[in-house]
Amino acid sequence: MMIRGGPPQPWRSAIRVILATSEVSHPANNLPLHPAAAPKILSCPPMKTIFPILLPLLLSVTLTAQPEKAQPVFKDGEAQIVPAFEDAADWIRHDLFVETTFDSDGDGKPDRMHVDVTRPKQTETAGLKLPVIYATSPYYSGVAEGGRELFWNVRHELGAAAPNDHVHPEVTRRGKRPVISNSEVDKWVPRGYIVVHSCSPGTGLSQGSPTVGGENESLAPKAVIDWLNGRAKGYTEPTGGEEVKAYWTTGKVGMTGTSYNGTLPLAAATTGVEGLEAIIPIAPNTSYYHYYRSNGLVRSPGGYLGEDLDVLYDFIHSGAEDKRARNNRVVRDTEMKNGMDRITGDYNDFWAGRDYLTHMPKMKAALLMSHGFNDWNVMPEHSYRIYNKAREMGLPTQIYYHQNGHGGPPPLKMMNRWFTRYLHGEENGVENDPKAWITRERAERDEPTPYADYPNPQATDVTLFPTAGAPGHGGLGLEQTRATGRETLTDNYSFKAEALAAAELTEHRLIYVSPTLTEDIHLSGTPKVTVRMAASKPRANLSVYLVSLPWEEGRRTVITDNLITRGWADFRNHNDIRKEEDVKPGTFVDVSFDLMPDDQLLRAGQQIGLLIFSSDKEFTLWPEPGTELTVDLAGTSVTLPVLGGKQALGKAFAGE
Fold first, then answer.
1. Among candidate residues 650, 636, 642, 654, the one with its CA nearest the CA of residue 474
2. CB 485: neighbour CB atoms within 10 A?
3. Burial, 7: exposed, middle or buried (Cβ in 10 Å; 0-12, 13-18, 19+)?
């Protein structure tokens, strides 16, 4: 049959080429024919005789003529943007409800989590299977609105209840179908990933109750990962519905997110769920005790004075309105009320259950951690304690620190290499890269310096000792003198820390200042402080800052620019974080604790200042002014992690 018009048929040309260049046996005598004779037999043998010979060749030629299959592309160890995946109009977007193993709203049925999916069309049209970037959050469907009335009143005596309860707001739910969030999709779908989102229990269209760090917040993302690997069931509806299967994924999952959204990847990883290959938490809250307490002291996160666990519960409770009263009664007004303990600030089993460090033994996922050294909301100790433990466990680890505040992901190149290695399986050598990447100054935001690890292995501890000088500036040096004495400050929450640090003379703080640096000094690690102190009352706040002087006035970010690091403690917990003890007024105790980890350069011309005061206007409770703290300088010191150790710091002090 002659086909007229249109492009040449590949199979027809193929037959001619094959018969013209191959030895073909004549059916009559089974003798090979010379290629020159091949055209003559095109009409000789019956089709049924030649068809079995040509069929495989025809199929091969036909498949070769098809357009090249769209698939992930890698260059220099990174997944590249693939044009076939780039057009958002072609993406397939749908939602479903994944059934969990828990019933946290008490209705007698397993809670189902609302999940959305965004994937390239080739996962449907070409049978392409891709790994998943998964983000989950309690914030996707709305949060509470309001002002200071949502928070606890911090103006009261230590050890006493707040004078009035804070407002418990109702959240207006904004749950939508089918798209929960658009986060991550523009970044990762064009690079050959599927992006999945889910709402946390008791938020949006997800069933259950918020618990703010409770077990269900770990098991919910685990269920989604189990569904992606065929171990859990998904349905088209929150009740009933048809089953939905994740036939379009390889089952390899990576998770990322910032703040609470960065906590939940860690929560999922601590379950040991199979298929979660890598996580990139950004400024994650890794312990709710460390978020709302410090060494036995009730302390607020920066910028949210008076916030506590129950406030955050109210803030995110956007789930079904008909379940809220029961959830409030069982979770907020019973479990949280009995466990939070805003009176003593002690660590207890309630807080231990919300500390992900205690759940890490099951974790198997590769960890790339990211945080800012000037994050005073979720403070930098949160990331380091988890990174350090993962490193001890032998997990693949990497950490990225910058000098800014809350948030701040690693450079895209780092994230891309991490996910490319552990989700696509590309051997890009990321596990052999430097373990730590630090931006030591703000100008280097996107140019981190590689370290063999964090803290910098070249840093060693150097202890500095104070000498008297109140109400002005005392000294801070490498040698402890015998005639150190005792000095007293008077608590007054009215003065912010920056005012106390900048003051030439004040009775409301003690400050001890080093010689002027004649060379740059590099700090890397966790400073530690010991304060031998007594109080004029049975309870008192203790706040300690490391600052750089001279104070630079007139800058909008002065406290951050002059701040090295800081910490807080309850002197009644000097022996045991779990149980405070009565300390009689005037009795001296040694209070030792870590300040927040740091890494920065202190420039020549600066001085290091140890600032000791009582109530911190922006972080602690506000007792009535007047409590006196007396510091015994003979038992007081600060230890700094310095590159080059005592020799380097001594040289910088002496100017030699």
1. 636
2. 14
3. exposed
pLDDT at 67: 52
| Angstrom distance (rounded) from CA 137 to CA 316 | 10
Q: What pTM was estimated for this model as a whole?
A: 0.88
pLDDT, residue 165, reads 85
CA atoms within 13 A on the CB side of 534: 12
Beta carbons of 540 and 159 less than 8 angstroms apart? no
Number of Cβ within a 10 Å radius of residue 364:
15
Q: What spatial distance separates the first Cα and last Cα of the chain, rounded to whole Å?
A: 98
Residue (of 516, 519, 523) closest to 652 by Cα position:
519
How far apart are alpha carbons 514 and 231 in whole angstroms? 61
b/e burial code for range 285-320 (CB count within 10 A of at least 16 → b): bbbbbbbbbbbbbbbbbbebbbbbbbbbbbbbbbbb
Q: What is the pLDDT of residue 552?
A: 72
Cα distances (Å, whole numbers) of residue 328 to 89, 264, 325, 337: 42, 22, 5, 11
Structure tokens that stand for 103 in this block:
């019933």
- The whole-number pLDDT of residue 559 equals 44
Q: 373-400 in b/e burial notation, b at 16+ Cβ within 10 A?
A: bbbbbbbbbbbbbbbbbbbeeebbbbbb
The C-alpha atoms of residue 279 and residue 254 are separated, in whole angstroms, by 5
Which two tokens mark 413? 């190149």
490 with 540: CB under 8 angstroms?
Answer: no
CA distance 439 to 210: 36
Report pLDDT for 445. Answer: 54
| Cα–Cα dist 529/305, whole Å | 25
155's CB contacts (< 8 A; 6+ apart) are 163, 621, 622
* Helices and strands: H and E segment counts in the chain: 17, 30
HSE-up of 579 (CA within 13 Å, CB side)? 1
Phi, psi of 423 (to 5 degrees): -105, -40
Tell me the β-bridge partners of 466.
476
**Each residue of 367-399: pLDDT tens digit?**
999 999 999 999 999 999 999 999 999 999 999
Rounded CA-CA distance 222/354 in Å is: 17
Q: Is the peptide bond before 178 cis (omega within 30 degrees of 0)?
A: yes
303: left (phi over 0), alpha (psi -120 to 50) or beta: left
Contact 98, 198 (CB under 8 A): yes
Going from the C-alpha of 127 to that of each of 71, 250, 389, the distances in angstroms are 11, 11, 40
**Residue-wise DSSP of 450-468:** EESSSS-TTEEEEEEEEE-
Which residues are the active-site residues? 259, 375, 406
In this predicted structure, what is the pLDDT of residue 148?
A: 85
With a cut of 50, list the residues of the chain below it in pLDDT.
1-66, 555-559, 656
Report the alpha-carbon distance of residue 557 to residue 548 in Å, rounded: 14
For residue 534, give Cα distances in angstroms to 486, 497, 537, 609: 10, 21, 9, 22
Alpha-carbon gap, residue 87 to 275, rounded angstroms: 28
